[in-house]
Design brief:
The chain has 10 helices and 13 strands. With 392 residues, it is of the alpha+beta class. Among the domains are: 52 residues; 186 residues, Nucleoside Triphosphate Pyrophosphohydrolase. The longest helix has 51 residues. Keywords: Membrane, Transmembrane, Transmembrane helix. This is Nudix hydrolase domain-containing protein. It comes from Planococcus maitriensis.
Length: 392
Amino acid sequence: MNEFVETVKDSVGYEILWILLGLLLGELIKYGINWSDKKLKKRKLHKALKNHNNIVLEGKDIISLDHADPTYEMHDIFVRESGKKLFIDCPEEYKEIIRLHDPDFVFSQNTSFNRSSDFNDLAEITGIANLPGLIDKHSRVAVGHFIAKLENGHTIFNGKKYRVFNIRRKRVADGEENASLKLDLFETDYFTHHVFRSIYKELKAEGHPISKIEKMEEIHRYSPFLTSFGINAFILLENHAESEIVFAKRSKYLNTGTEESLWHVSMNEGLTETDREGKEVSLIKCLHRGLREELGIREEHHKYIIDERFMDLFLETNRFEIGLTSFVRLDMRRNQLNSLYDISKDGELETDGIVSIPFKQKELSRFVKGHSLTNAAKYTLKMLLARRKFML
């Protein structure tokens, strides 16, 4: 009898052991399949993004600096202030003219990265020996443009902004090798940006090496020129049988000089001092501020946000401006968005209108062929389409 009981125990024990081993093997196989599937999708996405890298857009005006596979995790983009400041004062003889048109216009004192006022340190950083002289020359060019805009009734905001001083990229050693970005910022204003953009235009016309940059490692030498950094976001409306993508037409009142009335991304916003959360500068807060000011999507509408992501860092070489591609998926209908846009704070200042079209290759191709788009809009659209079958 005892032998029979022991035999039964042994039999049950072996059976349980084999069941456990079978379950464990099943989980291992499932994990292996999922892991392989993720790796395969990641390789396909990486190939798709690589095929879109360094895209030739009307003269190779876009350079990809970094891609996420497929998007950056919010905690993998680190944004911090470097403590650096760069401000160019308006020439004294023009200040009274500006005050006649805008008594509240904010002027800044000459301040360079090393806190001096002669900008000689910038000549050393960039290797452009005559840069201080160019700054003086183009500050007068820039103020002429400002006065012309003000005389035509346009509004110019010259508040403090954050721009990119240094970029560091890496892949996080977490098994997924997620992309990570570290952005060190410096403080500047719009007038300073306008001056450096004018200088860049002259250098580019002369064939200076700054206009022939091809990779990120070459950018840091010219950090004083990186006075523009913006989030380029497309809105995707999902409350339909099919998704729709929103394009915005840039306003004729913008101070872009060449891109007024071109179709652009749904929202384009630059980092400012209002995008602080405590001691930190927040890209998400900047994104949400842009949605609120340009499209009327306020905090009470955030419940309609299905997803919001950042994708790529790029340099627009025609204007030497850095951008971060993004998308926001909304559970919202077209007419609801149009109603919000009509009462948005900066809608008429930033854009002349918005349009929603089906997020399908055929309709998108027809729209792109039939309308003039900014290079940033084309690039952001291409990067979004490259990821579409992997994540949307």
